[in-house]
Design brief:
Beta-Lactamase; Rossmann fold; Helicase, Ruva Protein, domain 3; 5-stranded parallel beta sheet
């Protein structure tokens, strides 16, 4: 069999099809070749770039300074197996672009070329990471621990795509809140968000709920009904507890996802739909695939963008933020303004293992509010299993001291809390956003405290 020969024209076409920019340099660091993506990222055309010294293209950046100081490309690795990357900011046409840049050494006697420089646009990614780091919450999600900041960044990044998402995490961690945040931050936010608990229905009812049915399709079908796929058209469909559906139902669902068409029960007419599918489960689907109880092809179709939600016991520093948000909601529901936790009550919540995660915390706080006599929820108002976790079979966790928990411990009385707020506002020059961050409360809560 005759081997194929890669021509210069075909090589240039290949390079121009890449999303990454590529520059080819000689030993004197002059540009000898460039692809279309590199020209776009540099805001120039090929003719104005070729022949220039590489450092002049990135003038003012650490990369250019190192290159000029050493007299060679500082990014070229000494060993082929290693790769040194650098993020640089370039201003082009009044806008700043963040590029990730690295170099590869080319084989000797390669038409006088010494190395190639690769450029990747990270502007959008960096903006999302910066936004996530400043967030205390995203939609209904609350938390500032590293795991939550990572989750926020992943949600915002996934929201720009239309690919299927699989959300995994223990029961009660807030998987539906993650799905809603994905929907609300996506281009489909104006469309419907349709959730369905797949584990709550037997196969015959689940099939009707998902795909719809015609009038008279089965006993009791007095009228035609639209299924969840059609109801979510133009929006997002959440298939919660996807790990609970039977193997035959998995096969039917896979076909619908592949064809992007649904056929109502009792009909033969396929109906197209435009839906972003999000699946959620507390089960280990990869283990179910290995056991043969979950279809491998369906698993990979759903798991294009995987998201993992950490259990509450692994992010105990977020408990004060969550408790503050939940108490504000309970204050409105029970018409009891100013509800807050005593410091020893907060310490007990942080020490508990929370097998039921955020959902259990919400229920525990409601129990405590009902039993509290005033605006301050005392330690004695908490559930017995929280006060004595070892007797209830849970393990107490060490409390990590954070600015947020220090705030709750220091605010023992309304007078002390007011004094602390005044002091922090003075330190921040009246900047309420920064003051709220230092105090460990939302800006809304700070505004309410100031009004009080």
């Amino acid at each position: 069999m005759k081997s194929a020969v890669l021509t210069l024209d075909s090589l240039q076409s290949l390079l121009d099809s890449l999303e990454e920019g590529v520059l080819f340099l000689d030993a004197q660091r002059r540009v000898r070749g460039i692809n279309s993506a590199a020209a776009r990222l540099l805001g120039s055309d090929e003719r104005s770039v070729v022949g220039n010294l590489c450092p002049t293209l990135f003038a003012g950046t650490p990369c250019a300074r190192q290159c000029e100081t050493r007299g060679r490309c500082s990014l070229v690795p000494r060993h082929a197996a290693r790769r040194k990357t650098l993020d640089i900011a370039l201003k082009r046409a009044g806008a700043e672009t963040t590029l990730r840049i690295w170099a590869m050494l080319l084989p000797p006697n390669n038409a006088g070329l010494h190395c190639s420089i690769v450029l990747r646009d990270r502007t959008r990614e960096v903006a999302l990471e910066a936004e996530a780091k400043q967030r205390w919450s995203l939609g209904g999600l609350v938390g500032r621990t590293p795991s939550m900041q990572t989750l926020y960044a992943q949600i915002l990044r996934a929201a720009t795509s239309d690919a299927s998402v699989l959300i995994q995490g223990e029961s009660g961690v807030g998987k539906e809140l993650v799905a809603r945040a994905l929907h609300d931050n996506s281009p489909r936010a104006r469309g419907p968000f349709v959730p369905l608990d797949c584990g709550a229905l037997p196969d015959n009812l689940l099939e009707s709920e998902l795909f719809g049915h015609a009038r008279g399709a089965f006993s009791g079908a007095a009228a035609a009904r639209v299924g969840r796929f059609e109801a979510a058209n133009g929006g997002t469909l959440l298939l919660d507890e996807i790990g609970e559906i039977s193997f035959p139902m998995q096969t039917k669902l896979l076909r619908v996802l592949q064809e992007r068409e649904v056929v109502r029960l009792g009909e033969n007419l396929p109906r197209s739909f435009d839906v972003r599918v999000i699946a959620a489960t507390h089960r280990d689907l990869s283990a179910m695939v290995a056991e043969g109880t979950f279809r491998e092809d369906l698993y990979y179709r759903l798991r294009v963008l995987p998201l993992e939600v950490a259990p509450l016991r692994e992010r105990s520093p977020d408990i004060p933020l969550l408790a503050s948000k939940m108490l504000a909601e309970l204050s409105e529901r029970y018409h009891r303004p100013g509800l807050r936790l005593a410091p020893d009550a907060m310490a007990a919540l942080e020490a508990y293992h929370w097998p039921g995660n955020v959902r259990q915390l919400s229920n525990a706080l409601e129990f405590a509010v009902v039993h509290a006599e005033g605006a301050v929820v005392q330690r004695r108002n908490l559930l017995p299993e929280i006060l004595e976790p070892r007797r209830a079979g849970a393990q107490a966790q060490p409390i990590e001291e954070t600015p947020v928990t220090r705030y709750y411990r220091s605010a023992a009385t309304p007078t002390e809390e007011a004094e602390r707020i005044r002091r922090v506002l003075e330190e921040t020059g009246g900047n309420r956003a920064e003051a709220a961050r230092r105090l460990g409360m939302s800006r809304t809560t700070l505004w309410k405290r100031l009004r009080e």
